[in-house]
Amino acid sequence: MPFARQPTAEPTTKRERRLIVAVGAALLGVLAIVGIWSALRPGSYGSSKGGCITVNLPSSMGGSLIHQCGADARATCRHAFASAGPVSLLTRPQCRLAGLGPSR
Length: 104
Hints:
It contains three helices and two strands; from the N terminus they run H-E-E-H-H.
């Protein structure tokens, strides 16, 4: 028979519904906690300051994070202010925040 009726499942009991709601609420709570944590804790590098730069650059896989301190950061900032490419334009504000470039 092409249109044979499939046997219907038993309706869920109140206990099963409460369990599903409790698991859903717990999952939603965990996701909320992870979201809040990730928004408030930006990562181990933080922002550019104190002679260290952190630059987010576009790349083929979405984005690339460059973090440098000391002589490496100073060299990168010198190069950023000496050239006019797109990477230099993204690096300059971070150099200013770190105190490694000419201020405006």
